[in-house]
């Protein structure tokens, strides 16, 4: 919301500089996003009249003009403006002047003819093309006859055009929608400066013809709690007077015509959006507010053909949609230069429906911004009457008698009780009854005080954000001054900071993976429905967003691997082929409309490319399933889990059926590991890739060993090799489990060093070879100790796996 300081001075006697006022507003009410002076460093720009226009002897598009600029002699100006003519009152940038963008204007010659300055368009003196009433291509700015009568050549044009003005750009928060109007801003600034604002007044003269005979209106109370119109006939549509145009462009709104400009002026003054219909273009002499059906067609004022959605609010006539109520009008009843009769509409529409239409149609207008946040219900029909009075004045219109009302209700001012003791207790102050009363007076809040310190405050309609006693305490604090509140130190027992057990666990998981050479990735928790269904450890239902910010962010993710695959695809596209990434984050499981989704901490990792790049003495080594399995095993070991085992799983659709295993801690499924299915990899346009995902929430609930260390034995170790012939479908994990179960207390480690399938063994068999290391922390082992352990191991392998010990 832009605020013109010149306009604000019509309400209040403001004598402090603009920057000081901006600081007070920022400290008390809302942020100041920007502050600037419209004139900038421009100078020597004056009002002038065109005395003569002659063709340039050496150009077919330039003319030579003689200009009265208030000096003793006329000035000669050479210009290419297509609209320059004798008798016009224009804007002249004289020799030595500075115009917009710090451009200097100097005396010079154009095609041999002396030019003592430049006739300018508004865009050349800093008015944005978006708000300028005339397009730059149309030529220089020319004052209309009515405005020109009061102008004197040589007068400062920047003052005449309202550019000697400071603009404060307010960052309005949703709770302070009252400041989306000059009236609301004036009340707020008045409270800050301890001044009472003078609000705009008007006189409305009506004809004897009842407006109810010209039009009928209907509106349901649930869609439009307030709805009414006025009819103004015989208007003369023209450019607005200069005072109105400069007020609008200073506030960032482009002047269109006197009728449209008046509605915009009321929006800025009262914060109440109005709309003007061309009465003669209505399909019937009636207006109806109703809920839209899906796919009704409507062309809006911006020339875009749109289709409604169920839940939008429409204003119709003869059941034909005329406008998106509270958002934007329709082209079919637009006020044009040919308009003679006007219907002015003022309403309060249901905020949720307005937001629904504005979002779906991508039409976030000045009107929708205010209807969504709320408007002053006391000013709805006041703004309507004020607009009708201005049309009678500026467009010579005839205002038919009375408003035509479809819905209305009287504002019931709420009362809130608060005691000075409560205010002082919350703020830590010692304010008196008189001081608090003065603050409520400055805010314009009527109140009563009982014999003690209890205030009963009546909340005016313009401050619909105030609903509970805490809101009044905030108002007292703001106006009293946050800087005046006493400074105290926090009171309470000091405690040592630290991480929770869960935080320690999550941090440790990241540190382990980083220590193993993996890099952290961070991604959005939102994805597409198709990706959300992939790579789930156990089935989850994604949370569907009602209003997603894009098609790629419609639901919550069910796995972290899909995000990591996107990262891999991005890096491969940028020629980064060797990747080791991990992500620790949350996945979500919807539990129903009335229940918050379950959030579970997950950890996922992904490998692709080379584990070891090629060098002069070795070949490149690709990552494989066992590379990633080793990382996961080391992670689980470092986190204190001992009962870890991997179970082959061919049923995960997005994983390779021959290289995928579920990860169990005891009997609890906590994740999976394996190769990404080749078809899935092709979908992502990536190469052979391996991934794992763990449910950290499930793991946190399982027992873990604490940090410990093993004493290094000072006695020598003994190694034995074991070669077996087993069935092809027997896994090494099964063999290892048996060896460790029967190896005894001295078995330190078991390592696979050979796997063989081929001509030397039967087709349904494979050969496995293991190296077993035995050591005692207390004594030197002898062969008898080792032989006994090996006998137990061999017997178990033969009995349980039908292995042949070789």
TrEMBL record:
InterPro entries: aa-tRNA-synth_II/BPL/LPL, B3/B4_tRNA-bd, DNA-bd_dom_put_sf, Fdx_antiC-bd, Fdx_antiC-bd_sf, NA-bd_OB-fold, Phe-tRNA-ligase_IIc_bsu, Phe-tRNA-ligase_IIc_bsu_bact. This is Phenylalanine--tRNA ligase beta subunit. PANTHER family: PHENYLALANINE--TRNA LIGASE BETA SUBUNIT, PHENYLALANYL-TRNA SYNTHETASE BETA CHAIN AND LEUCINE-RICH REPEAT-CONTAINING PROTEIN 47. The gene is pheT. Residues 39-158 form the TRNA-binding domain. Residues 713-806 form the FDX-ACB domain. It comes from the Bacteria. The lineage of its organism: Bacteria, Bacillati, Bacillota, Bacilli, Lactobacillales. Mg(2+) binds at residues 465, 471, 474-475. Residues 411-487 form the B5 domain. Its EC number is 6.1.1.20.
């Amino acid at each position: 919301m832009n605020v013109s300081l010149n306009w604000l001075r019509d309400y209040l006697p403001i004598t402090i500089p603009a920057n000081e006022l901006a600081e007070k507003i920022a400290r008390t009410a809302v942020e100041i996003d920007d502050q600037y002076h419209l004139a900038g460093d421009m100078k020597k720009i004056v009002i002038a009249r065109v005395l003569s226009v002659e063709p340039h002897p050496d150009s077919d598009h330039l003319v030579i003009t003689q200009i009265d600029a208030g000096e003793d002699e006329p000035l000669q100006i050479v210009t290419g403006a297509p609209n320059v003519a004798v008798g016009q009152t224009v804007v002249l940038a004289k020799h030595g002047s500075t115009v917009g963008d710090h451009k200097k204007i100097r005396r010079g010659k154009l095609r041999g003819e002396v030019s003592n300055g430049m006739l300018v368009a508004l865009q050349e003196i800093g008015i944005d093309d978006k708000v300028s009433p005339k397009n730059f291509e149309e030529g220089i700015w020319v004052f209309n006859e009515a405005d020109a009568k009061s102008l004197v050549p040589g007068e400062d044009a920047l003052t005449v055009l309202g550019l000697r003005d400071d603009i404060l750009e307010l960052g309005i928060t949703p709770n302070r929608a009252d400041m989306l109007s000059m009236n609301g801003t004036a009340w707020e600034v008045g409270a800050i400066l301890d001044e009472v604002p003078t609000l705009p007044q008007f006189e409305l003269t009506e004809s004897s013809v009842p407006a109810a005979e010209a039009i009928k209106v209907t509106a349901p109370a649930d869609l439009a709690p307030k709805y009414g119109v006025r009819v103004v006939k015989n208007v003369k549509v023209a450019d607005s007077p200069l005072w109105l145009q400069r007020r609008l462009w200073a506030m960032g709104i482009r002047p269109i015509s006197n009728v449209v400009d008046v509605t915009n002026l009321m929006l800025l003054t009262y914060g109440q959006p109005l709309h003007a219909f061309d009465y003669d273009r209505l399909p019937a002499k009636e207006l109806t507010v109703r809920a839209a059906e899906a796919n009704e067609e409507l062309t809006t004022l911006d020339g875009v053909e749109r289709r409604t959605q169920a839940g939008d609010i429409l204003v119709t006539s003869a059941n034909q949609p005329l406008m998106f109520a509270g958002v934007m009008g329709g082209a079919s009843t637009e006020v044009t230069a040919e308009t003679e009769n006007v219907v002015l509409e003022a309403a309060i529409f249901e905020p949720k429906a307005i937001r629904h239409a504005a979002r779906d149609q991508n039409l976030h207008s000045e009107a929708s911004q205010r209807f969504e946040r709320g408007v002053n219900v006391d000013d709805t029909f006041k703004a309507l009457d004020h607009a009708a009075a201005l049309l009678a004045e500026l467009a010579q219109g005839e205002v038919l008698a009375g408003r035509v009302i479809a819905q209305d209700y009287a504002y019931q001012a709420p009362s809130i009780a608060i005691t000075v003791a409560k205010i002082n207790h919350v703020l830590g102050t010692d304010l008196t009854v008189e001081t608090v009363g003065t603050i409520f007076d400055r805010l314009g809040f009527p109140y009563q005080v009982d014999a003690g310190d209890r205030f009963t405050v009546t909340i005016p309609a313009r401050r619909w954000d105030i609903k509970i006693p805490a809101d009044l305490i905030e108002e007292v604090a703001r106006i009293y001054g946050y800087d005046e509140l006493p400074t105290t130190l926090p009171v309470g027992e000091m405690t040592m900071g630290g991480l929770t057990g869960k935080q320690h666990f999550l941090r440790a998981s990241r540190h382990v993976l980083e220590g193993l050479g993996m890099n952290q990735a961070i991604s959005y928790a939102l994805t597409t429905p198709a990706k959300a269904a992939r790579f789930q450890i156990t089935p989850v239902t994604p949370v569907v967003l009602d209003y997603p910010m894009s098609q790629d962010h419609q639901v919550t993710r069910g796995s972290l691997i899909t995000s990591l695959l996107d990262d891999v695809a991005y890096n491969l596209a940028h020629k980064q082929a060797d990747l080791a990434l991990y992500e620790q984050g949350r996945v979500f499981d919807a539990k129903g409309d009335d229940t918050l989704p379950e959030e579970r901490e997950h950890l996922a990792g992904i490998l692709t490319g080379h584990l070891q790049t090629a060098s002069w003495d070795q070949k490149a080594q690709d990552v494989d399933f066992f590379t990633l399995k080793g990382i996961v095993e080391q992670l689980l070991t470092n986190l204190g889990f001992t009962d870890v085992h991997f179970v082959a799983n061919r049923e995960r659709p997005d994983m390779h059926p021959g290289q995928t295993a579920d990860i169990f801690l005891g009997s609890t499924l906590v994740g999976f590991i394996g190769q990404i299915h080749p078809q899935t990899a092709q979908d992502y346009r990536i190469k052979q890739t391996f991934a794992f995902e763990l449910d950290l929430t499930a793991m946190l609930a399982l027992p873990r060993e604490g940090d410990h260390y093993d004493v290094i034995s000072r006695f020598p170790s003994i190694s034995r090799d074991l070669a077996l012939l087993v069935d092809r479908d027997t896994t090494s994990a099964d063999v290892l489990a048996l060896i460790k179960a029967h190896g005894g207390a001295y078995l330190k480690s078991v390592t696979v060093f050979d796997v063989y399938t081929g001509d030397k063994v039967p087709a349904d068999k494979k050969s496995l070879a293991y190296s077993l290391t035995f050591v005692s922390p207390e004594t030197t082992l002898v062969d008898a100790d080792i032989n006994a352990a090996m006998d137990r191991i061999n017997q178990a392998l033969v009995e349980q796996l039908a292995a042949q010990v070789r």
